[in-house]
Protein 1
Amino acid sequence: MKQIKYISPRTKEEALEVLQQEKDRACIVAGCSNVLPNLKDKKIAPQILVDITTLESLKGIFKKEGKILLGPLTTINELISSKIILEEYPVLTQAAREFADPIVRNTATVGGNLVTASPAADLAVPLLSLDAIVKIESLGDKREVNLINFFTAPGETILNSHELVVGIEFKQSDINKNGCFMKIGQRKAMAISIATLAVNLDWKENTINQIRIAAGSVAPTPLRLTGVEEFLKNKKLNQELIEEAVIKVSKEVNPISDIRASEGYRRYISGILFKRAIERLAN
Amino acid sequence: MEKEQYDFIGQPLEIKNIGKVTGKELYSSDINIPGQLYAVILRSPHAHAEIKKVDYSEAVKVGAVCIGPQDVPEIIYNERIVSIPEKTYRDRTVLPKEKVRHKGEALVACAAETEEKAWAALQKIKIEWGKQWKPLLTLEKALSDDAPPIYDWVYLGEEKLKVKNNIACERNIEVGDVEEGFREADIVIEKTFHTQRVYHMQFETKSAVCVPEADGGITVWTTSQGIHNVRILLGNIFNLPLSKINIKRITLGGSFGSSIQMNSITPICVALALKAKKPVKLVSSREDDFYDHAKYPLKTILKVGVKKDGTFTAAHCRVWVEIGGHNIQAYPYLGCVAGWFASLYKWKNIKYEGTAVYTNKVPTCAMQGYGNPQINFAVESMIDILAEELKMDPINLRLKNYVGKGDEFWGQGPTVRSIIRSCGVEEMLLEGAKLAQWEKRVPHYQKKEVIRKGMGVARGFHTSGTGGPNPGEVIDYSGATIKINEDGSVDVLTALMDLGGGTWDALAKIVAEVLKVPFEKIGIYNGIDTRSTVFDVNTHATRGVYCGGGAVKFVAEKVKEILLNYAATLFKDLPENLVLSCNKELGQAIIYPREIPENYKTIGEIAEYAHTTSWGTLAYTSTLRQKNCPPCFITHFVEVEVNTRTGEVKIPRVVIMGDSGTIINPNLWEGQIIGAFSRGLGFGLLEETDYHPEDGSLRCKGLVTDYKIPTTLEMPKIEDIIVRSAHTYEPTGPFGAKGIGEAALSSVGPAIANAIYNAIGIRFYELPITPEKILKSLQEKEENLRKRRGE
């Protein structure tokens, strides 16, 4: 194994400076639940580990002006124990509860789950269905990107090597209050998902005003199923429509076959997860 | 059944091994010797390739000590020496000499002052490869006429044998006339079953620490289920007298059978230490371990003939096992599979044909059952298939044909035969059926729900040890030294290993019961090695309590005799007039003349007197061979819920009936049964080591990320796991006890498969039964129905 340098910046600005200098050579670490296995599996080979776990400004769950801001260092367990998340954004609590196991949930962070950009990132899926925005900073610059445009390929995002995710934001709204997360894996804990699916639904008198559907482990990146969303919009929600949508979900996902499941099973099971989720939300 | 009042046997356990719950227990990887080097292993990137040259000169230049194929002894051995030498196939050296035979096979090892330096040195090793072959990964490919030979020659005992068609060994057995039997039958059914390779996934990966001693000898701490066999093998390989080799008995972090043989890393560590002339420590990573051992898979073609009334007339059983790149005792494995098969039911006429085949995969070895869960899956599935065909209740068909009390049991195969003297099969099937509410079971064709419930039953057993009236092909004896210390406490010195099931606690209880000394005053942990103990073969074959406990009881009784004889001189009485009992208030064993308890002396006082008068130590050493191997029986009633939309299987409730004769430690016994159920659940529904067809690598890469065993969340809730014991007494066992460990796993797989059949009407012939397989079968069934309806 090669020698790896370790830096622990004291402020966000210091972290951004290090990133500006070191760019590709650096790898940001926080919870380490992905970085360490990836190092061992030789999937990544950084020269410098930049440990941001001491940066207080990147921690916490903040409510302001009809919005929620998550610090990227928020751990999965902090999400689970947040009352406001449970009441206003239940899809996120549900996903967090099914994330890995209690030990990993104590260290793994929301930001880490997003930037690792695994196709199977369990938190990306509810955050997509909450229509979250990713706040990004670099030395002397900042930008915002909708999560839908964040992931580009397995393990890859639009994030440049000198940039840091500093927040994840989503709106307080009727649709965000009504969400459901579904997951299927080889076993019930500590298993990479075979398929995940989240639905957020805003409907009145049986008519769908707006729906967001996100899916994980069924494409090169976590994705929104915009085709199905379009199809369902302004339609009367009934069993027939659900059955039609189930087929469309199976068609819109774009999975591969791997050691955990085949492509066909993933397509089929995505439809089933959608059916379960929408039925739960509609009842 | 004999009724005895016990002071310690059968009582709930106080935790004796406190080191395990406080994290202070030492395992092989915790041993550190001043000045030790750290070793790492270069493993083959190829599955089947000729080694032309190994050049580690650059690694030596950076300060590493290295060994390659050219440095290890020429001795060809089998790492598992539980069987007698003339029935032991030998095909391996410490490191492969001419070619590698599976990906991940250890090839070169480096030791240096730090692990980092050892790794850095390892990168500098150059291997020149010769001819490479496409890996043979399946039975069919390995057996085909154009398959490259994985071995040209192997040894059976001292005989050199040519290997034909990659067949490692064969075993054929015939009892009666099967053809005649099939002619008598009203119904004959033949089916093919497959069980998969699973990985042991024991907590502790294999480790070794070796210290070269000043006298030319070695001291070794290593992961092992039997320290004496490790010593014998190392003596043979390195040409050292056994008196110069000392193997320390150290706690195991689980093994499930993967350390019955001397682990492949142990002689590598020794070779490095002998070359370096310094202590060497070698700890396997999980990836190393994944590429080191796996469970024997099995393909079974089973044909059974039965009369209309449910009486069996004949069974023809053909099995194939692909064993991977080395033969770790596939010959006794084939014998045991025959034994398990023959001892489940009275088939009347039997024909058995077993074939073990080399492939370019990880070598397979024993894992909790040594073929029993594999063949049990075929037989217990077949019983349900036959019962349906006969329109008989599956429980009744089992009751009609099972091998029980008074019948012949084949123990460890055809050469170890004994008569069954205790049997709870009937009680377990009938009582279990009541507890499981078997009578409420509904046939699958009446179920239409999305989530369909089902219930299945399967029964099994395992041998307790490998003894028989006459010694067979398997070596089986244990021994101990037991001494009463100067304060009346007791030391038990036995090489018998505790694999984590609580065997040492059971043995301590047996000694406590014989000598009436409180359990907490029995010392059995730590400070044990080959030099201080008499031989013990191994903790395998569910023999810990029955054979190890039997030997310890035998020695304890001798010590009791010595104690009473000595006490008689103090009481000026005859030994037969003295009573030995436990006084719980005093926390001491006491001795008194019959009818005069007030005149007691504690054995602490007696031992102290023997000490201060220089009489000597009250002690005895001996070994014992058990002349029986009684089956411990198990019965599983499993409830399942199959989700027909996703193929997921949930197990809401299970009833498990066990027959271990007298139970020494009830809570550890229950723990064994529940733990085995969890492993069986993995075997039945989840686990498999897949290979890349091209390069012969493990698809999970040896990482647990993609090899899942069940967690507690896959288990039924604790209150829905009902475990009960049969009321039996084994006359040949210590205090009436038999084993449990491997029995507890044997019938989990088929019980789940039978329950799934009852839920959805689909019979699975291959494990694991994954959601994807279930879904595919459900879709096929739908399609066939549609076709039949002409849609």
Protein 2
Amino acid sequence: MTSVTSAPSILPLTLDRVAYEVGGRRLVGVEWATIAKGRKTVVLGPNGAGKTLFLRLCHGLIKPSAGTIAFASGIRPAPQQHAMVFQKPVLLRRSVAANLHHALALAGLGYFERRRTSRLILNRFGLGDLADRPARVLSGGEQQRLAIARAVAVGPELLFLDEPVSGLDPSAMRQIEEMLVALHADGLTWVMTTHDLAQARRLADDILFFHAGRLLEAAPADRFFAEPATEEARAFLESRLFW
Amino acid sequence: MFGTFSLFDSAFVAIVLLSLKVTLTAVGCAGLVGLPLGAALALGRFPGRPVIIVIVNAFMGLPPVVAGLAVFLLLSRSGPLGGFGLLFSPAAMVVAQFSLVLPIIIALTRQTIEDLWGEYRDQLTSMGAGPLRAIPTLIWDARFSLVTGLLAGLGRAFAEVGAILIVGGNIAGFTRTMTTAIALETSKGDLPLALGLGAVLMALTLAINGLALAVSRLGARFAG
């Protein structure tokens, strides 16, 4: 990966009294939260809990109505320093390799550097044989792997993933989880939303638990699963969550 | 075969070639200008944008004779561009057809690109591409839909007679195209020749459209 090694770390990411409101309705409320370097954070909660909006706020796609979302010591990161993978991968109507070339071009890489890096990345994630295939005709799992490969190709320090395995079969899900574990081992910090408890148990270092738009709990995963602090979290863990 | 000239003599071939040259040049230029303008109109947010969209859409139905008249006034000796001496030349015909085709390409491009931007916006923004940088990406990814807009423009230019008749003058061997020749031969009463020319015009239009559709279908299959 073409990591921006010289740049100072953008982490931790800190949210302070953040609110996101539309038409006077509060859709997301976060009193305080932090994304620490080197952690695998899972944003957990039922559908409609505000998990996706939380990611979009952190990634800067939407602006908070109130509060501050700040990277380490006030750094304004370049677009390539934190990336996002969307629930439904948005792949360009081009070949697999061209999708990577495009992302790398946006990151400012020259022609030959783009070719070299994309080959490296595709081979690393087992997509090398698909390089010339149209991205849009890949299977769901392959598309999502390509979307993740494209997101990390530019060397971000932090990656947001919005339900990256929803709707995928178990083997595709396992491939993606392995990919995420390997990326973390390489030093990538990531934040993933899911409502899949088993997946959260497998992957999470930290849990951010959302319910009805509010961040109710932020805790290390083992503590969250052993002794959830709120009634909502207990209910969610026992699959009897009310709305 | 058809009185004054046969379908295969050099005068006839020259007419067909001039028609193709004028129309393809006009549509090519309109595409070069109209695609980026349409995309910019799709992505840009500025005051007066709705007004511009309405005007562009309305100009899709601009009557060719009116466009011809406007270009005639621009290019005539006493007009603002009269110094170039372009009136009654193929160049003037290109200008007239360009002005007819441009609104079609802008309007159809705007619609196509706006829809695609809706799908791509988050992803491109996330990757650090602002609207300006997104324009080439969107045009390339919409290329197979945009062919339809170019074809609509081509159809209009190819079939059009009013504008090029006014600014070209239907001068034999110089500015006579298939459509202006058809108009002339019909008024002269040489209906078989007019019909023959009409058949060739139809065949060429069909061939161009078929080719373009085949290319875009094939491309779409390989690009997904």
